[in-house]
Amino acid sequence: MTTAKQRFTLAAFAVLALAAASQAALAQPRTDLVVGMALEPPHLDPTAGAAGAIKEVTYANLFEPLLRVDADGKLVPGLAERWSVSDDGLTYRFALRPNAKFHDGTTADSADVKFTLDRARAAESVNAQKAYFAPIAKVETPDPQTAVVTLSRPDGLFLFHMASGDAAIVAPESAATNKQKPVGTGPFKFDRWVAGDRVVLVRNPDYDGAKPKIDRVTFRFISDPAAQVAALKAGDIDAFTLFSTYEALPEFRNDPAFTVMVGSTEGETLLSTNNARKPFDDVRVRRAMAHAIDRQTLIEGVLYGNGVAIGSHFPPHREGYVDLTGMYPYDPARAKALLAEAGYPNGFDTTLRLPPPPYARRGGELVAAMLAEVGIRAKIEPVEWAAWLEKTFKGKDYDLTMIAHTEPLDIDIYARPDYYFNYRSERFNALNEELNRTQDPAKRNALYGEEQKVLAEDAVNGFLFMLPSVTVQKAGLTGMWVNRPVQANDVTGVSWK
Amino acid sequence: MLAFLLRRLVSLIVTVWLASIVVFTVLQLVPGDPALLMLGIDAQPDTLAALRSQMGLDRPILTRYLHWAGGLARGDLGVSLTYARPVADLVAERLAVTLPLSLLSLVLSTVLALPLGLLAAARRGRGSDWAVLGFAQLGVSMPSFWIAILLILLFSLTLHWFPAGGFPGWSAGIGPALQALLLPALALAIPEAAILARVTRTAVLDTLGEDHIRTARAKGVGRMAVLLRHALPNALIPVATVLGLQISFLVAGAVVVENVFTLPGLGRLLYQAIGQRDLIVVQGVVVLLALFVVLVNALVDIACALADPRPPASGNGGAS
């Protein structure tokens, strides 16, 4: 009897102890984080590739540029703690953090800045945004903590570009191997990469700035939409960023275990139009198409309502935005009249080429149906990325296509003479040059407004909607970015409640 | 036997060499530039040229083929254009997932199929026979990716016993790695087991009707002993042939199941490499797969020749 009693007491005690231990474990917030992404980065060097996934893993977490873009799109200190610009807008002086170190223990100083910028603008550079560095005339290093960059011409976006992942500061010792073993100066350092599945970063104990609350972040790559939903529901991942299975959102919204955040990316989604090809060289035809497209229906059908319409090539959340969505209201009758005026009373046949993203494939079907209403018979041609880039972007051999332009503040692409829109406007180019010479924010915003109006008046492309930034995360997680002012999954401010 | 093996070896080399030419040529014809894919839609012409020359894409086609095929002959698969790593490393890493997955599903399907097939044959026309046939019919009709989704729904989302996909890597330990592989292996094994069970049943029934079985029974050997000692070994030849054919299907089916479970296997590597126009990886993987299929077929032929309990036909050194 006594032994049985003793055993019972012991068991009861053990259960209590276990319960207490698990209580203690519950009281302690988690310090790890698993982030889901649709695409795996091909490598981890942000200075040598355009794939957004590279920056989504490394930006601000592992690598730091001189400046950083924060969650609100503002410029904040990165590797440089202070900076100043000369009055003529040609000389930039960066004061670096005195104790900054690379993850391999080597110091991060002005020599590394000079190396990084010179490498990016060199003849053999493979930087995807080499144009960002083109204005640089020279980089000087008066002392280890100071880098002075002199431009050959004013560039109003220079600081903004120096805050991009493409301008992440790298060291000569590790630059060649960053693709596989990235060595940066950020608050997280590289731990391991299970190719095809995950990249793991751990907190950098030697970081000289504010240390993140998370000590381990795993980025998992899940391309299949059903598998993304399953991984979230099974609790395998804590947050999925740039979630694009919009039809699953009501389910997550109704589940108290999850939070859904809908913000905006920098992706202006366009019905890109070959302005050099007949009949699209006629502005009346382009305006007719603008009147033929019902943006709200498109947003409902493609994004299940999670998107904002645009009337030109500029995001509504940025200063300098002008609302031009009312310039071409949905009006099929007006569209037909314009087509008749341009000499196409019976419409015409054309081809709409669609790259793989769901917004393009799904949106393209809807756009084609809307165009058909006014007599424009668009044959749909689905292609994969490689073929799209080769034929449409590089070859400029297309009529219409649908694509989101995700680079931030990229309205200047309309000034590029050989860009695939085949758009040429003296008016726009003059505005763009003036913008480059202008430093004053208010004046810059006014110029941005003028540019947007020119593009809308010329109806260069079909301006459709901003691609949303949807994050589905576990309740209790805070600090994930709502918007995507740059391509990043900055988790330095993330914590668990 | 030696002549048979030699003939096999020559046809193997020729097949793989032809495969290398076909895959190389096809990839040259498909539009798409790996350098452009790396640099995206803000690529400058000079950057593009720099990257193309870094990747060796500016050299003539024949030079590139000879360079690659020469490396292949020496066992060097080259360096991936996008991942900037040796293809052999990438493949080895992915095989560390695909091979255990295929093996596990092979074992699972055999372990499921042989007893079921035997049972059905032994109890022909009775309830358990019908049950096995029913399972086989259902298993054959359901594609493995659909079974995969059902398994995820039950074991991951409802019971939370297994992760819904992904692979922690072997470095995370045998336990978690096997846990990640078990559901996908099962999803692959069920349709295979269904086919194998049916083949086993038919093959055993066929041999049961043959003369030597009747003789054995007449000599007083028990039913069970006849089944296991006399019928099964003869029935194994068609079963092994089907199993051999199924191995290639297992690897192909693994591609689909790898996607549903987001496992970093060879199939997904190939899929991603095609999307990124990582020509060197695609070429390497396709040639390796060709080699694999040819090797498995050769091995199955050899195994059948060895397993055949009849004395070898004299003269031509065996079947080919």
Automatic annotation (TrEMBL), chain A:
GO terms for cellular component: ATP-binding cassette (ABC) transporter complex; outer membrane-bounded periplasmic space. CDD domains: PBP2_NikA_DppA_OppA_like_6 (cd08494). Residues 74-405 form the Solute-binding protein family domain. InterPro entries: Peptide/Ni-bd, SBP_5, SBP_5_dom. The keyword Transport does not apply. Keywords: Signal. Residues 1-27 form the signal peptide. It comes from the Bacteria. One of its GO terms (biological process) is peptide transport. GO terms for molecular function: peptide transmembrane transporter activity. It is found in: Periplasm. Its main location: periplasm. Belongs to the bacterial solute-binding protein 5 family. This is ABC transporter substrate-binding protein. It comes from Azospirillum palustre.
TrEMBL record, chain B:
GO terms for molecular function: dipeptide transmembrane transporter activity. The lineage of its organism: Bacteria, Pseudomonadati, Pseudomonadota, Alphaproteobacteria, Rhodospirillales. Residues 95-300 form the ABC transmembrane type-1 domain. GO terms for cellular component: plasma membrane. The keyword Cytoplasm does not apply. It comes from Azospirillum palustre. Belongs to the binding-protein-dependent transport system permease family. Keywords: Cell membrane, Membrane, Transmembrane, Transmembrane helix, Transport. It is a multi-pass membrane protein. Signal peptide: none annotated. The chain crosses the membrane at residues 9-30, 95-118, 130-157, 177-197, 235-260, 280-300. It is found in: Cell membrane. PANTHER family: DIPEPTIDE TRANSPORT SYSTEM PERMEASE PROTEIN DPPB-RELATED. It comes from the Bacteria. Pfam families: BPD_transp_1, BPD_transp_1_N. This is Peptide ABC transporter. The keyword Oxidoreductase does not apply.
